[in-house]
């Protein structure tokens, strides 16, 4: 029997399929390797392209996106390695644009005015780097709410010219529990070099003064840096500003209740002696150093507002200057006989000067009004009444320096 030639025999069909599959896989593998290598090159090219096209300008919006306690003062936009081209800020609720300006060097943008508390804002900032490639940043945030913030109203106002007795006085709209934190972020200094110390009257009032009256002609600077300061558990400060005022000539007037006259001294020299009528025996005038806190050419004085019922209601009191919160004034008097001035004390506690109705004419009341500044001192002596409380008006000068400094939190 003849043995068939195996080499000449056709291969089984299954084996041929396996061989074909193997070859195909090899081919796919080659393609896959080639494709992976090609992808890697493509990614490198893409990265290179992205790096080439990406802007180097780095925009930073001061308030984080989604923040609910953003500052109403410090909010703004900055850019590094580029210049801002446009910044748009809007009140989300109203859609109203917030005015602002880009700095001359293109590096920053700030709102024109202080932002509103408890308001949601959106900012879109655009910039370009040195090669003109653009960058954009967006943020939406809400400023700190009225309920969770505090402010301090203060006197005197910036730019004011005041008398030598004028303290710096803050009244906060919420009770302050961390007095040290708040006081340490308010500094008051004078060009005279006088040491200035703060004193707390309760939890909502903080006054500053030097040991002696301000030096005439000095410049006083208040730096208020309360933005972000925690004054209490749910009360964050929002103010950040610098205020300056100037001190005028030195005028201190002394009312002698017994002698029924007032001596006006300016820069240490007596300029006039004025007959007055102070509080009666039943309603005496407070003793002590009192600071003029307000001036009114004419004002209404109604006894019912200060505990005197319907005893008086004068709608046009001339040349009135407030000395206390409780209602003590030094003012013109046209309704009493001219003979009382210098001879009788007849008022309900105020110091009266001879005057005429309508606040016109050449009278002693008008002369003193025109000669006085808010912040001038009027000292009353010889009255049977007690010394005025230091916090009844701007009258902290009635405390000794040791008492004053003991009320400081820093």
From TrEMBL:
InterPro entries: Big_10, LD-transpeptidase, LD_TPept_cat_dom, TAT_signal, Transpep_catalytic_dom. Residues 251-381 form the L,D-TPase catalytic domain. The active site is at residues 331, 350. Keywords: Acyltransferase, Cell shape, Cell wall biogenesis/degradation, Lipoprotein, Peptidoglycan synthesis, Signal, Transferase. Pathway: Cell wall biogenesis; peptidoglycan biosynthesis. Residues 40-50 have a biased composition (Basic and acidic residues). PROSITE patterns: LD_TPASE (PS52029), TAT (PS51318). Residues 1-35 form the signal peptide. PANTHER family: L,D-TRANSPEPTIDASE, L,D-TRANSPEPTIDASE YCIB-RELATED. This is Lipoprotein. It comes from Streptomyces lasiicapitis.
């Amino acid at each position: 029997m003849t043995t068939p030639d195996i080499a000449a025999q056709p291969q089984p069909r299954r084996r041929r399929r396996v061989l074909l599959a193997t070859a195909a896989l090899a081919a796919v593998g080659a393609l896959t390797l080639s494709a992976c290598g090609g992808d890697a090159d493509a990614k490198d090219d893409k990265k290179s392209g992205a790096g080439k096209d990406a802007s180097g300008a780095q925009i930073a919006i001061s308030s984080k996106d989604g923040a609910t306690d953003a500052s109403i003062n410090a909010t703004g936009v900055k850019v590094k390695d580029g210049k801002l081209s446009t910044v748009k800020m809007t009140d989300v609720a109203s859609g109203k644009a917030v005015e602002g300006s880009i700095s001359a060097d293109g590096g920053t943008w700030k709102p024109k005015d202080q932002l509103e508390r408890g308001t949601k804002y959106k900012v879109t900032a655009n910039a370009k780097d040195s090669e003109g490639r653009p960058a954009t940043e967006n943020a939406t945030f809400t400023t700190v709410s009225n309920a969770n913030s505090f402010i301090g109203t203060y006197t005197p106002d910036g730019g004011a010219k005041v008398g030598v007795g004028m303290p710096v006085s803050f009244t906060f709209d919420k009770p302050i529990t961390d007095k040290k934190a708040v006081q340490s972020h308010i500094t008051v200094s004078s060009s005279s070099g006088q040491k200035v110390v703060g004193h707390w009257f309760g939890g909502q009032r903080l006054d500053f003064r030097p040991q002696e009256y301000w030096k005439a002609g000095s410049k006083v600077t208040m730096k208020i840096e309360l933005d972000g300061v925690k004054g209490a558990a749910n009360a964050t400060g929002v103010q950040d500003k610098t205020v300056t005022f100037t001190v005028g000539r030195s005028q201190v007037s002394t009312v002698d209740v017994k002698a029924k006259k007032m001596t006006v001294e300016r820069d240490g020299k007596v300029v006039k002696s004025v007959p007055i009528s102070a509080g009666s025996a039943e309603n005496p005038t407070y003793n002590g150093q009192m600071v003029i806190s307000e001036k009114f050419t004419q004002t209404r004085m109604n006894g019912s507002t200060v505990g005197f019922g319907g005893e008086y209601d004068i709608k046009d009191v001339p040349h009135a200057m407030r000395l206390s919160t409780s209602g003590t004034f030094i003012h013109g008097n046209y309704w009493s006989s001219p003979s009382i001035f210098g001879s009788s004390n007849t008022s309900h506690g105020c110091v009266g000067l001879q005057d005429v109705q309508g606040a016109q004419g050449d009278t002693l009341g008008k002369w003193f009004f025109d000669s006085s500044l808010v912040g001038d001192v009027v000292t009353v002596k010889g009255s049977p009444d007690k010394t005025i409380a230091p916090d009844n008006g701007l009258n902290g000068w009635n405390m000794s320096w040791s008492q004053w400094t003991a009320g400081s939190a820093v």
